[in-house]
Design brief:
The complex is a heterodimer of chains A (223) and B (121).
Chain A: E1 6-12, H1 16-27, E2 32-37, H2 44-50, E3 54-57, H3 64-77, E4 83-86, H4 95-107, E5 112-116, H5 127-144, E6 156-159, H6 160-163, H7 175-185, E7 190-194, H8 201-206, H9 210-221
Parallel strand pairs in A: 1-2, 1-4, 2-3, 5-7
Antiparallel strand pairs in A: 4-6, 5-6
Helix pairs in contact in A: 1-2, 5-9
Chain B: H1 6-29, H2 34-56, H3 59-67, H4 73-120
Helix pairs in contact in B: 1-2, 3-4
The chains are: A alpha/beta (223), B mainly alpha (121).
Chain lengths: 223, 121
């Protein structure tokens, strides 16, 4: 199997309905799928284990940022991991995008590849969602100094040396901006790559409501 | 401004003094960080002295209020209470954040060591 040096990091919180399928699909392409079960109460962890993932379990729910950091810590202590990929458990990311982003990272020798849903027109987002996300992008860019076209996109390829510079302290949603900030501080080369987010009914129901954007803005402003 | 009804006021004075004494004992028992603790204890002693003085001689509060340019003693008390409450909120917010970080570190360490154990077995 190619991509033996890749660890897919999937934070999981109460995703029992979809996590097995997401992990199963990932396992067809990648040896190392690391799930952090963030205190799920619906058996998500067992489902992910059965589907072939390595599952770490948080004894209590801490938030996606905390789960991601645990996954990063684990991946960095695993021998032979060269690239870390952050991947959402709700099935909105495409494996084809991951493979393409890994290709970019290897061929162009960049340390970080951020997925962006706004580099092309494939992703269908409503006007309000687009507005909120664009605002989040603007705020993130102001604080991080990077010029990204998308923020809060869970799909990222991070080379080992860049991942070592990530120490997330924002346990909840604001980690998405914090990780950009910390990756930017590594001064390593980065790219954006157009990805397609599939807004299924499931991901819409699970995903961030627009009201959540208010929380994110507050977390970022008063940190 | 002497009291007209010393017996009625005596009861409330005793009640308030007992309340302050109990709060003092409870507060001195909680402990984290030597320097913080020392500062808190000094503040506590000052608070106890001021409170006891005001309880025993309520007119003192009004005199203090006039001295700092506030009309009535009750107003001064309200302001002090408001400031004290915000100070309390701020200090507890800080402590909560530290506690949350500790819980995060602990949970992460536990998850990582469990994963290591499973791999070893």
């Amino acid at each position: 199997m190619a991509n033996e040096d890749v660890a897919i990091l999937v934070p999981v919180f109460n995703e029992a309905r979809v996590v097995a399928e997401v992990v199963g699909d990932l396992r067809q392409h990648f040896d190392r799928v690391i799930c952090v079960d963030d205190g799920s109460t619906d058996g998500s962890g067992a489902a992910a284990t059965a589907a072939g993932a390595t599952v770490l379990r948080h004894a209590t729910n801490l938030g996606q940022g905390a789960a991601l950091q645990t996954a990063i810590d684990f991946a960095l202590t695993s021998p032979g991991v060269g690239y870390l990929v952050t991947f959402d458990a709700d099935g909105q990311h495409q494996i084809d995008d991951v493979l393409a982003m890994l290709g970019v990272a290897r061929e162009q020798d960049v340390a970080i590849v951020f997925g962006s849903r706004f580099l092309d027109e494939r992703t269908q987002a409503g006007f309000l969602k687009r507005l909120v996300l664009k605002t989040a992008v603007w705020v993130t860019n102001q604080s991080t100094g990077l010029r990204l076209t998308d923020a809060h996109n869970g799909l990222r390829v991070i080379r080992r040396d860049a991942a070592a510079g990530v120490h997330l302290t924002q346990n909840r949603m604001a980690h998405a901006s914090e990780i950009v900030l910390q990756l930017g501080r590594t001064r390593l080369a980065w790219r954006e790559y157009p990805v397609h987010l599939l807004y299924t009914d499931y991901s819409k129901a699970k995903g961030q409501s627009l009201l959540n954007a208010v929380n994110i803005l507050f977390e970022l402003t008063f940190r | 401004m002497d009291t007209l009804d010393p017996t009625g006021q005596l009861v409330i004075k005793v009640l308030l003094l007992v309340g302050v004494a109990v709060a003092t004992v409870l507060l001195t028992r909680s402990s984290t960080g030597a320097r913080h603790q020392a500062i808190r204890r000094v503040l506590l002693v000052l608070f106890v002295i001021a409170t006891a003085a005001v309880i025993i001689e309520p007119a003192l509060l009004s005199r203090m209020a006039r001295f700092v340019g506030v009309g009535r003693g009750t107003d001064l008390l309200l302001y002090a209470l408001a400031v004290g409450f915000v100070w309390f909120l701020a200090s507890y917010y800080g402590r909560m954040r530290a506690l949350n970080r500790q819980i995060t570190d602990l949970t992460r360490a536990l998850a990582l060591s469990q994963a290591r154990d499973e791999k070893a077995s």
